[in-house]
Amino acid sequence: MNPSRNNDRRRPQEPMEEKQFDERIIHVNRVARVVKGGRRFRFQALVVVGDRKHKVGIGVAKGADVTAAVTKATDVAKKHMMTVNLYKGTVPHEALGRVGGAKILIKPASAGTGLIAGGVVRTILEVAGVSNVLSKSLGSTNKINTAYAVLNALEQQVPSKNWVTTRLAGKDDAAKKIAAKAKPAAEAVAEAK
Residue 161: what pLDDT? Predict the structure, then answer.
């Protein structure tokens, strides 16, 4: 047999297309239900999907084997994507996300700090495209509740264009407040004369 003829019969290699989303398996758990003959085992998967550009989603699903569970969870995560409001590579302000007994505190960090987070929190923030943040996990260590608590904290973020500062609140409002405080004092001085 001529080896050169063998190579001609192969299918042409198609270039691998880049994935649109970064998919990460956070946790796979074996679950069981008790039936008459014993236990039936299935698998539960927790998957996070993001584009590293402000979008992230989480999915939990069960399947007969690990690959089925992961595939289902990935589909669920893609259906439930949310946009994260970021400000200069970090979160705009601090927020406390709560789900069940899990509490996650996330705070903005200056450039160069990196992700100060562990486990589930770090994975979700990486996939969402956050580059600098401080976080603390409080309460329960349940991975599913922790994951949803991170999403809860990210949902609370108000974009910088919606911030209300004293400069944006209007000088008229500030002037009215000062005048209102000064009015009783001016009246008291006038009565004293």
Answer: 78
